[in-house]
Amino acid sequence: MAITAKSFTFLLISSLFLVSCFCTKKTQNTFPIENGLSWTFYDYRCPKAESIIRKQLKKVFKNDIGQAAGLLRLHFHDCFVQGCDGSVLLDGSASGPSEQDAIPNLTLRAKAFEIIDDLRERVHKECGRVVSCADIVAIAARDSVYLSGGPEYDVPLGRRDGLNFATQEATLANLPPPTDNASAILRALAAKNLDATDVVALSGGHTIGISHCASFTGSPLSTRSYHGGNLCRGSQGNLPHRELYEHRCARY
Length: 252
Hints:
This protein has helices spanning about 5-30, 50-65, 65-80, 110-125, 135-145, 170-175, 180-190, 195-205, 230, 240-250. The chain is mainly alpha-helical. The chain is globular, with a radius of gyration of 22 Å. Its cofactor is heme b; Ca(2+).
């Protein structure tokens, strides 16, 4: 039977689509990941986990897109201390204060913890206690990037929840302070086997959300930018929208 030009075009496009899907899947499966993690970890035990999280986060961000930055920062502060184990979610105990009580974590959004707890309840209602909180935090961070207009990317899953939180000293030692310069940040991340490209990617995470005014106080920007700390303290200067920014800064 003769193949018309229209049919041939359809078959060609279909073939290219299948090849594209195969290559994408192959690239994903060959990307190096840590032992114990898998691209298909919950495919049988909780196949709807990621869709449940994304569906709920779409609703959250529709009301307040600023929560995306809070969830992304929560993931960073969890992973950089003693690995992505969800230990930042743990409350303190008789053994000592939790990671949440360490100075760098005092500014983590309280709402971010509430969102993670809500996501955990939704996922566990669907599948039982199968999905770890550490994985929920990782998925929420990825969706925060994507739903804020950033790139989509796959997340290997299978993280185990930590049973112990890090000390405040360990938390301080592992989270680079906002006062670090580029050289110090590169050294700190190199200690975790991350290179300059990773630093750029992590820095890009600061392009969503807002910062606390104290992070800019005393910086060169504070004398010429209305995001600066001097403006938040009501400094001199005739800057555009000054009253608006002073009002916003007073809340953070």
